[in-house]
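Loading example: each entry is read as two labelled lines plus one structure line.
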Amino acid sequence: MTTTRWRQRVSSLMAILTAAAAGSVILPLVLIFGFLLWQGAAAINVDFFTHLPKPVGEVGGGMANAIIGTLILLGLASLLGLPIGILGGVYLAESRDRRLPWIVRFLADVLNGVPSIVIGIFAYTLVVLPMRRFSAVAGGVALAVIMLPIVVRTTEEMVRLVPASLREAGLALGVPEWKVVLRVVLPTARAGIVTGAMVAVARVAGETAPLLFTAFGNRFWHQGLDQPIAALPLQIFAYAIAPYDDWHRQAWAGALVLIVLVLAVSLMARLVTRGRVGAVR
Amino acid sequence: MADGITVTKLNAWFGPSHVLHDIDLAVAPRAVTAIIGPSGCGKSTFIRCLNRMHEVVPGARVVGTVLQEGQDIYSPGVDPVEVRRRIGMVFQKPNPFPTMTVFDNVAAGLRLGGVRDRGVLNERVERALHAAALWEEVKDRLGKPGAGLSGGQQQRLCIARALAVEPEVLLMDEPCSALDPIATARIEELILELKRDLTIVIVTHNMQQAARVADATGFFLLGELVEFGPTSQLFTKPVDKRTEDYITGRFG
């Protein structure tokens, strides 16, 4: 027979177990961040943010070109991926048609699971081969393709969360449906859509594989969107496998900068969601 | 104007289920018409058919004629958007736009309808808020979020929002069912004020409410209009046995 004491014991045991499991979710991030600080902080200085990499064999220099390159690549990817993703998500949520949205939704989920290196090959075939050159544009296309399914699906979810009563209130005022979507539904879902967009940006900021044969990397300043461009993940990769201690230190520092960038974007997403008057409840 | 709404042989469906059967009813102009009946009898569907809101639900269908201003709102050339401008609606749960301020909520129908002029907006918003008996309570907080008002105020805000586009008819779908008795009393007073200029159709669960505000009342049961007549007559000398059973509380 189960006594009260036995049940209380099981209850506290389960409480501890679940709390421990929840705690272990944040453990990897804390460890990674701590380790990066420990290894990379020493190599971070003004030069790191303002200088080009030094030639092989020389100590010093920085990754300024890679930091700018990553920002340019993220800008290009957002320019391509966000409008298409958001419009597509609105379609999925609003369309009365059954079949096309079902297909798109299913394929978006499949695309979300496609390994990023495969998407790199796709961008290579689509952009690099016809242009006969590695380029920032090719890297942006590859990252945009990775962003698309995330943005489409979160936008759809957020638009669906807007209560039908608001839509009806708009329609009952004699407002055409497209205006209700544009001026009532989308503003109500805005916080969620922005969050989704930022999550997608954070997700692709650290992508390395799809950039290997699209953006390619570059040891010099940005030279135009049709030219190979440096990116933090690529630079980290190149430096990490090189045989020089100074490069290893810089790779750690680069990783630290990258993770801070991602953290900053995620944090911004949080703040945007919280600050809005009347975000979706 | 002033010829109310004439409904003839109105039938409505949700997908395969036939929820309204051959409704014939004449709504008098500048009067309050109440629709009563148990849950699921089709009263909400009925008033949603009067401004073409029923068809917004996927799979919903309507057959029949609804004459307003001498025009059948279901005839092929009629734009539902135009119909809804003339025939406004207030819903069961207060539903102010959460991203908008008090002012913007009331101005929403006008702005989305293309009115830009600041002076016109100010004037129409103030008039609508006065008409909804809300002006005194919100005049100092027009820039605050509409969702921050109390439930009763939110519902009057929604009435003001509907009035701002100056409709000829106002449909109210159980407008007090989410409100306390004091807020309910205010809305009822308001309804009696509004009927001087407007034709009002109100769905209510509350028979006392129908008795208090309505000039005419219709009793719906299982998708049919059982009885329709002057409120005093329907509640004191109902013709149909089913009406009598319902209003005396024998079922429903």
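Chain B has a mean pLDDT of 92.
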